[in-house]
Batch of 3 targets.
Target 1
Amino acid sequence: MKTDRLEAFSDGVLAVIITVMVLELKVPEGHTLHDAVTTTGHSLLTYLLSFIYIGIYWNNHHHMFQLIGRVDGRTLWANLHLLFWLSLVPFTTAWMDESHFARTPVMTYGVNLLAAAIAYFVLQLAATAAEGPESPLRRALGADRKGKLSPVLYIAGIATAAVNVWIGMALFTGVAIIWLVPDPRMERFIAENHVGE
C-alpha cells in the first residue's frame, strides 16, 4: 500500500489535536496585560510546550514518510498507536495546567510523552520491517542517538517530578529543545540518494 492515505489521516489528526489544545486556553476576563498573564499565563506556556511537541512529531513523521515507499497492516496499526498517545496530549496538558502543576498530573504528562516516544519507535520498526533490510529509513536513522536518549530523559523527568515537578518539567522541556535543533539525517539522506525524484 502507498503512504498517501496514512499521511493525510495523520496530518488531519495532528491538526485536530492542536485545535483542541488551543480551545482549552481561557480568554482573559479583563483588558490589560496583567489580566492576560493572570488568566492565561501558565496555560499559554503549557500550550506552547505541547504545541512544540506535536509540531516535532508532525515534522519527524513527515520526514519519515519521505523515506517510506509502502506500508503494511503493521505499519498502519503502529501509526494509529502513535496517534492514540498524541491524542491524549490535550488532556494531559489541560490536567497539568488546571492543577497548577501538581505532582500526579505532571508525572502523567511525562508518561504520555514517554508513551508517544515509544510508539514512534515502534512505528519506525514496523515501517522498516515492511520495506526489508535495505529500507532507506533504516539507513537514514543510523545510530539514532536522540531517539535513544529521549526515553531516558522522560523516565528521569517522571521520577524527578515525584520529588520536584519543576525539575521534571525542565527535563521534559529539555527533550523538546533537543528535537527542535534541526536533525539533518533524513534530509541529507533524501538529497544524497535522490529519494522521491
Target 2
Amino acid sequence: MLPGQTLRQRYKIIRLLGSGAFGVTYLAEDLDLPDHSLCVVKNLKQIQYPEALQAVRRLFNREAKILQHLGNECNQIPRLFAYFEENGEFYLVQEFIDGHDLSEEIFAGNRLSEVQVTQMLQEILELLTFVHDKNIIHRDIKPQNLMRRNADGKIILIDFGVVKQISALEVNSQGQTNVSFIVGTSGYMPSEQLNGYPKLSSDVYALGMLGIYALTGIKPQELPKNSETLEVIWRDRASVSPRLANVLDKMVHYHFNQRYQTATEALQALRPSSLPPSSPSQPPLSPTPTRGELKLYQKVLINTGVGMGVLVSVGLLFMSFWRQPAPDLEQPVTDIKLVCPETSIPPLPNTLGRKIGIATVYGFPDNLPLTGEGIMIYPDQKFGGFVRYDGQLKDGKFNGCGNYTRGNGERYIGQFNNNFYQGIGKFIDKNGCKYIGEFKNNQFDGQGTWISKDGSRFSGIWHQGKLGNKIFSCNNFSDK
C-alpha cells in the first residue's frame, strides 16, 4: 500500500512503520473520527495457497477476538478497532501507542541498576499475570514487543503474534493445513517452545532473559551456557543481590517444570509480600505526570538540539490534607542508603559559564548533545528563581547521579534516568519534610521512608506515590 491509499473508505495510510517476513505494518488515520485519530494497520502477508484460505480465516477470526477481549479489559494492551478481509488479504486495525519500545532502554553494553530492573520486571509481570489468567501465552516477550507509553510511562505489551501465526500456516501435498509452528525469538525462547510446545512458563523464561540482558548489557543469545546442565551463566557479569539473582535463575531454568509456572508465581517471589499484585487493567492509584504535563515545565534549550528541561517535582503529586493517626502505615523496612553522594551545593566556579539557549552550563565538554558532568542553571518558570542541576548528563538528558534544586527550595539528590527521578534518591520538600528511598518516573515507588518535620517516620513499600492507600504532603497525609 502507498501513503494516501484508503482502506474501507476509512483508514487512510500515512506511512510504513515496519515490515517483515509475515506482514507489513502502517501508520494510518481514522477518517470516521472527528479528529482523525491515529491507528496502526497490520496487513498479513498474502496467503500463497488457496487451500489454506479457510483455515486462515478461522484462525484470524479466533485470534482477533482474543486481542479484542484483552485490549478492552487492560489498558496496557493495544485495543483492537477492526479486523477484516479485503481482496483476499487480511487486516488488523489497532490502537496506536505513542511511545518507544524497550530496546531504547535495554541494549548491548548498557547496564540498568538492580532497582530499575526490579521495577521493570514487576510491572511486566503484573501485565503478564492478567494475560496468563486468561490462559493465553504471548510467546514473544522481548524489548521490541514492550513499549513505554509517553503519556504515563507505563509499559504496553504488543504483538501477540497473530500475523506470525496465520502467515506460518503451511499446506502439504494433500492440501491439508499444518497449524503447528514456532513463534518466538532466539535467545528469549526456551527449549519447549522451540520444540513447538510453549507453556505459560515460556513467557516467564523470556522475561527472565530480558531482565538478565538489562542487568548485564549482554544479548541473551550471546550469554554462555553450562555444557552439562544447559543453564545460562550470567551472575559473574552483573552486580546484583542474591535475592534478585535467585529469582532470575528460577525464571530461566532450562527445564520448564523447575521454573515459576506462571507470571503470578514469579511476581509473588519478586515483590514483597506486604504489597499484593494490582491489576494492570485498573487506572493508576495516583496521578502520574504525562509527557504533556512534563512539557509544561520543561525548558528546552533552543537551537542546540539538546532536549534538557525541568523535571516535574515529586512535590506536585502531593496535596495538603488533615492530620490523622496512621498506625497501619508502619512497616518493618530498613532505611535505604543513598547510592549517589549527598553533598552540599558548592559555589559556582570562578570561570564564566557557557550560554546554551536559556541555560548556563559549567564544566561540560563543548560537544553537543551535552554528555559528562557539570553544572546547569536555568529559569524556573513554575516557582520563580532558578533551577540548578549539579550532576551527570548523557545525550542532553539527566542520567546518573545528580543534585537537583528548584526555585522554591525543593531538592532531589539521587539517581536519574532520561530526565526522571529513577532509582534511589532523597527528596526534600520546600518545608523540610523528606523521602528517602526508591523512585520510578518521578514518584515514590518501592522501598522508602517519609520523614515529617516533627521527625515522624513512615516506612514501607510505596506504589505510584502512595504508601498503602495514603498520599503524603509535609506533616499531613490522607486517603486518596
Target 3
Amino acid sequence: MSIVLDLGGLGPADLAAGPSALSELMASLHVLAEPEHHPEAADWTARATAAGPGLRDELSLFAPLWARFRCRLFFPRTLPLAGDLDEELAEIGALSAEEFLELVAPGVLGTTAEPAPAPGELRAGTTTGEAYVRRCLRRSYARGELARQLLAAPLDLRDRLLEVLRAADAAFFAEDWRSLRPALEDHAREVRRRLATRPPAQVLAELLPTAVKVGPGERVRLDKLQIDEVKVAPRPLVLVPSARVWPHLTVKDEHPSCVVVQYAVRGSAPDEQLTLRDLHQRLMALTSPARMELCRHLLGEPITTSELAARLGSSEPQVSRALRTLREAGLVRSTRDGKLVRHRLATDVIRRLGQDVLATVAR
C-alpha cells in the first residue's frame, strides 16, 4: 500500500519548504492526546502535561482535530509560509463561517471514506446536518459532540479553538518552539537548496526514508497504509519538516490551495524484546494485508465491528474473524459499552514487536 505523488509540471516557484509553528503545535497536541503511540517523547510529554486541568479539558474536547486524520486547518494554505504562530492564528481568526466549516468539518469526521457535506449544506437542524452529526457520533462520542458545536455556532467554536491554541502556546509550546525552530529552519534551507538544483521526486526520495522514486516521470511512492495517487500540479507542493510528527508521515491534498507533506526530521526507536513464541504468534497474525489494514483503523479510537465493516467494505463475519485472530494474539482489546463492543489496537503489545511495526501501522 502506498500514496504516489505525481510531481510532474512543478516549477521552482511551485515548491516550498519550511517549518510551520501551527503544524508543529498540532503535532505536539497529537502526541499529548495519544502518548502511548509516542514513547520516544515520554520526557517531553511529562513536562507538557503539567498544564492546568482547564486547559486539559479543552484540549480533550478538540482532540479529534489532531487525531489520526489531522485537520486541514493546521497546515499551510498560502505562500509564502507564515513567519510565526501569531500570524497563522490570525489567518484562522479571519476565516468566515463557511471557510471554517470547509476546513474543520472533514477533520471532525476524521475520514475520507465518505466525504463531509459541502459547507453550505452543513446547518444545525437540517437533514444533512443531522446526518453529519450522526456519522461523527458513530465514530466516537467526542467527534459527535464537537460536530454538534461546530454546526450550532462555527465562529464561536473557531474563537474557542483559538483561545485553546494560544493557551497551549503559553503553557508549553512557545518554549519548546524556541528550541526546535532553529534546527528545523536549517533543515528547510538545505531542502530548498536541493530543490533549486534537483528534480523534486529525487529530493523527496532522499528526504523521506520510506519514499521511492518510481517511473516514468516525476513520481514518488510514499510507504503508507493507504492507497492513493495525488496529482500535485497545478497546486504548489509544501514540505513541512517536524520534530514531533514521528512516526507519522502526513499528506494533505484535499484543499485546492496546495499539497502539504509533513514529515519527521528526527526520531528515536527504543528496543524491547519478546519471547520467541509470542513473537511468532503475533507476527503470524500480521501476515495478512487485510488484518494490517484493520489494525490501522483500530489505532486511533475504539471502533465497533459494524463500523469497521463499513469502513473496509467487508462483511461483519469477515471482520469478526480477523478481529478474533488479532485478539487471540493479544494485538486487539475489546470492551463492552452498553450494547456495543468496541475494539482498539493494543499499542503496548505492538510496540513490543518493535517500534518499526507500530510506526508502519501508524503511518
